[in-house]
Amino acid sequence: MLEIKNLHATAGGKEILKGVDLSVKTGEVHAIMGPNGSGKSTLAQVLAGREALEVTEGSVTYLGRDLLDMDAEERAREGIFLAFQYPVEIPGVSNTYFLKAALNAIRKHRGEPEVDAVEFLSLVKKRMKLVDMDEALLKRPVNEGFSGGEKKRNEIFQMAVLEPKLGILDETDSGLDIDALKIVARGVNSLRAKDRAFVVVTHYQRLLNYIVPDFVHVLAGGRIVRSGGKELAHELEAKGYGGFEGAA
Amino acid sequence: MSLATEPTTADAKQHHLALHEAFLATARARGAPAFVRALRARAAERFLEAGFPTTRDEDWKYTSVAPIAKVPFRLADAAALVVDAARVGPQRLEGAHEIVFVNGAYSPALSSKGAAEPGLLVGRLADAIAKDAGAVEPHLGRHASIDASPFAALNTAFLDDGAFVRIDKGALIERPIHVIFLSTAAGQPVACHPRLLCVAGEKAEAKIVETFAGIDGAATFTNAVAEYVLGPASVVKHTKVQRESEGAFHVSTTHLDLDRSVTYASQSISIGGSLVRNDVNAVCGGEGCEVTLDGLYLARGRQHVDNHTTIDHAKPNCASREVYKGVLDGRSRGVFNGKVYVRPDAQKTDGKQTNKNLLLSEHASIDTKPQLEIFANDVKCTHGATIGQIDEDALFYLRSRGIDRETARGLLIYAFATEITHKVPVEKLRSRLEEWVLRWLPERTAIGEAP
After folding, report:
1. What pLDDT, in 10s, does the model give residues A156-204?
2. B282 and B303 co-located in one domain
3. Which of A222, B297, B303, B445 suits a disulfide with B410, CB 3.0-4.6 Å?
4. What does the DSSP 8-state code read for residue B149?
C-alpha cells in the first residue's frame, strides 16, 4: 500500500531524511524506532503532507498513486491519518464541528452520503467508549484545556471515526502514563484490520508491548538502517541506539 | 473654495460651522432651555478653536479625516425622512425595549413600544429635557469631554435630541434596551450627530445595545456621542454594533463614568464604514470597579478602522480588562491605541490589555500602541499586542483531517473573531453577529452552519 523510495526531505534548509526506503503492505503494522533527531517525526509529517517540509528527492507511492503530488487534505481523503505528537489547540472551533466536517469531506470524496448532526452523534458515541472519552469533551473547542493524555486519546478517537486506510502514529506514547498508554493501544488494536495498515513511530519499546508490530525498523541519521521483526524492539531496549547513532 | 483644489480640513471646519449657524436659526433650536444653549455655545467655540484634527495631532496620527473633510455634507432634514420599516427589520432585537433614530432624529413610526418594565425609562432626550431637566442637566455634556475631542465638541454644538435611558435605583431590567441609529442619504451626502445619555442608579442592572446601521451605500457622516453615568454597584452590559454602509464615515465618542463597585462589561463590534473612529473613555470614579472593554473590528478593501480607548484608574482597587481583536484583509488599515492611566492614589489597580490582529493579505496593516501611564506603585498592569497570519500548525491539523485549505482558513478566522462575539450577552444578537462574521469570511469558504 505504501512504497517509500530514497526519500530525502529538508526542514528549514537542513536535510533530515537522507534516503528513506520503506515498504508497507495492507494489514501490516510497522514500528519506526530511533534516537532523537533521527527524523522519525519528520517522516510521519512528510507522509501527511506538511508543507513546511520540503521533499528534495525520492518517491512515495500510496495505493498506486504518487502521494507527493497530493496536498494534505487530499491525502486525508484518500485515507491517510496522522496522529500528531503535539496536537494543536484550536479555540473557537468545537470538536464536534471539526470532526463532522472532516468526516463529511472524506465521505463526500468517497462518494458516500454525508452525515447529519444526529447520525454523527450516534456514530461517534461508540468510538468514544473505545478511548474512554467523556462526551462533554466533544462540545469543547478542539483540544482546548485537554491534558496530554486527553489529547492523545482524542487523536485515536478521531482516527476511529475517520476510519483511515493508513494510520500514522507519531510518538503517540510520549508523555503518557501506563494507563493512558493502554487505552490508546486498545483503541489502535481495535482498528487493526486486513484492509488497514499502521506506521507507529516511537522512541521507546514499551508501546510495542501493547501494539505488537509485524515489522520494526530503525531510523537513524535520516535513513532506515536496520529492519526486523518484533524482537528487534526488545534488542533495542536492551542495547539502546548507540550502535546506530547518526549512521551514515 | 476653488474647484481646482480639494477642500482642506480648515474649509471643512467652516462648512460645518455654517451648517451649525443654520441649525441655530431654526425655531426648534431656539426653543431649547438655557443650559442646552449654553452647552452648544461652548462646544461650538471649542470646535471653532480646534477644528478638525490633522495627522499632526498625536491622537490622530494614523487616521486622516481628509476623506470626511472633502465631502460637502448637509444636515439631515428630519421631515423628509421615510424609511421602509422592512429595511429596519434585520437590525431589530425582538422583545427589546427598542427606540429608533434616523439620521439622529427620533422616528416614532419605527420605534416599538413594548411592555414597560418598572424602573426603566427609554425615550427621547428632548422630552426628558423638557419635562425633567433635573434628571438630565447634571449629566448631559458633563462627561464627554469637548476639549479632548473636536468631534465630541461638534456633536455637542448640534445638541438637540437623542436617546435618553434612565434606570432607577435597584431596578433589575430583564429585557435588553436597544437604541438603533440608522443612517441614510437620498442622493446628497448627509451628516448627523446622534446622542445618547444613559443614567443608571445605584444597584441597577441592565443590558443595553447600540446599533449603528446604514440603509444604503451612500456617503453619510455619523458623529455620535454617548454618555453613560453608572451609579454605585450597578451592573451594566453594553454592546455597540457598527454596521454602517460601505461609503459611510463613522466617528463615535463614548464616555463612561463609573461609580464605586460598578461592573461594566462591553463589546464594540465594527464591521462597516469606510472610515471609522471609535473613542471609548472609561473613568473608574470609585473603588472596586470592574471594567471590561472588548472589541472586534473586521476590515477589508480600503476600510480604515481606528479604535482608541482610555481607562482612567482614578481610584484604588479597580480592575480593567481589555481585549480588542482585528481581522484585516485587502488593503485595509487598522489602528489601535489603548491608554491606561493609573493615578497616584490608585493602589491595587489590576489592569490587563491585549490587542490581537490577524492580517489576511500582505497589503493589510495595523498600527497598535499600548500606552500605560502608571503613577501608583502597588499595581499590576500588563499589555500585549500580536500581529500575525493564520496559524500554520492549526491549518495543517485541520487539513490533515480532510478539510480543504480555504475552509480551514475560514474556520480559523471565524474562531478568532467569535471569541469576542461570544461575549455579547444578548443571545439573538450574538447569533446574528456570528452570521455576519460567517458572511464576511473570504470567498470560497465552504462553511455551512456556524461552527
Report:
1. 999 999 999 999 999 998 888 888 899 999 999 999 999 999 999 998 8
2. yes
3. B445
4. -
Last-in-domain residue among B365, B388, B411: B388
Residues of B in contact with A75 (CB under 8 A): 400
Asked if A159 contacts A186 with a C-beta cutoff of 8 angstroms, the reply is no
Q: Is the pLDDT of residue A134 over 60?
A: yes
Domain enclosing residue B440, as ranges? 390-451
Give the mean model confidence (pLDDT) for residues A6-16. Answer: 94
Question: Is B403–A84 a contact, with Cβ atoms under 8 angstroms apart?
Answer: no
The CATH number of the domain holding residue A105 is 3.40.50.300
> Which pLDDT score, from 0 to 100, does residue A248 have?
42
Query: Are A91 and B405 inside 8 Å of each other by CB?
Result: no
Q: Which of these, B426, B393, B428, lies nearest to B239 by C-alpha position?
A: B426
Amino acid at B212: F
Low-confidence ranges of chain B (pLDDT < 70): 1-6, 78-80, 113, 443-446, 448-451
Indicate the range of A1-5, A53-57, A204-208, B359-363 predicted with least confidence.
A204-208
- A106: nearest CB among B394, B402, B407: B402
User: Of B12, B18, B148, whose CA–CA distance to B68 is shortest?
Assistant: B12
Complex ipTM value: 0.96
CA A142 to chain centre: 18
Q: How far apart are CA A89 and CA B76, in angstroms?
A: 51
Domain-embedded: residue B110: yes
With a cut of 50, say whether residue A132 has pLDDT above it: yes
Cα(B349)–Cα(B288) distance, rounded to whole angstroms?
9
CB contact under 8 A, A92 and B418: yes
CA torsion A165-A148-A176-A152 (nearest 10°) is -10
Which residues from A are below 8 Å from B408, CB to CB?
73
- Cell numbers for B21, please give them: 449657524
CB contact under 8 Å between A71 and B399, yes or no, is yes
Residue from A53, A74, A88 to probe the interface with B (highest B Cβ count within 10 Å): A88
Percent of chain A at pLDDT > 70 equals 98
Are B125 and B242 found together in one domain?
yes
- For the record, the C-alpha cell of A212 comes out as 505488537
Which residues make Cβ contacts (< 8 Å) with residue B136, sequence separation at least 6? B125, B128, B129, B164, B197
Type and span of the H or E element at A12: none
Q: Is A231 exposed, middle or buried (0-12, 13-18, 19+ CB in 10 A)?
A: exposed
Indicate if B423 and B315 belong to the same structural domain: no
Query: Out of B392, B408, B419, whose CB is closest to A92?
Result: B419
Residue ranges of alpha helices (H) inside chain A are 40-48, 72-77, 95-110, 117-130, 136-139, 148-162, 178-191, 207-210, 231-239
Residue of chain A with shortest Cα separation from B422: A92
Number of domains in chain A: 1
